[in-house]
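Supplementary Methods S3. Complex input for the NAP-bound model.
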Amino acid sequence: MKIGILGSGLMGGKLGTLWARCGHDVTFAYARSATKLERLARDANAASGSVAEAVRGADAILLAVHWSRIGDVLEQAGDLAGQVVLNCCVPLDESNTDLVVGTTTSGAEELARLRPDARWVSCFNTSPSESFAGVFARKDRAPRPHLLVYGDDAGAREVAHDLIRDIGFEPLEAGGLRAARFVEPFAMVTAELAYGQPGGPALTYRFEKLRN
Ligand SMILES: NC(=O)c1ccc[n+]([C@@H]2O[C@H](COP(=O)([O-])OP(=O)(O)OC[C@H]3O[C@@H](n4cnc5c(N)ncnc54)[C@H](OP(=O)(O)O)[C@@H]3O)[C@@H](O)[C@H]2O)c1
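Predicted complex, serialized as structure tokens:
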């Protein structure tokens, strides 16, 4: 799969590197330094380029920037018409303490409003980047940790499922894009569990339904 990474920081850098290790054709884009993008690409056996280059012909795009950068990155990305976009962004203020949208809308719904012809799917926003290497290393162990995935486009969700499984998670369907109103605040809970509570940041989770 050809994957464009928009935002090559903690999330984009790590997910893109692991997808490249799975054999995907990854292009890293959007960082403050071209040298950083080039180094990331070289280390991952991937490519780096502009946002427009990363988006062109991509089967999947990962949007992984701070909420304050959304306008800038979308402007460079164009209309994204017909393209599958995995969104892991949490709509946070500059100090990363408060959500700037909710509860009658959400970051995911605002993105869909800004680029209505893109095929949006939300995932990876409830897992700290520090968990990815360990999840990837334990891919063969069952049961896998869950990862919430939600959106209105079934085909886009299927693409996301494959990419989520590549990292080593089991995708857990959590509803349509509107679910973002509730999942984005939950992402703040996972961040507190990862960074605010003891035991280290490599948090994973798994939901179970008791059958009897
Ligand atoms: N980190 C997590 O564990 C986690 C978990 C769940 C959700 N999220 C969400 O995922 C999104 C990405 O988070 P992250 O932790 O990956 O962020 P990050 O490490 O700060 O990465 C953001 C990327 O955007 C780039 N960038 C920032 N300002 C820029 C500018 N002015 N011009 C060009 N590039 C610029 C950064 O460049 P540089 O590389 O040069 O800094 C970096 O590559 C956020 O919305 C966050 O809320 C993160």
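The domain at 2-196 is CATH 3.40.50.720 (Rossmann fold). The pocket of NAP is lined by residues 7-12, 30-33, 36, 64-67, 69, 88-90, 92, 125, 128-129, 187 (CB under 6 Å).
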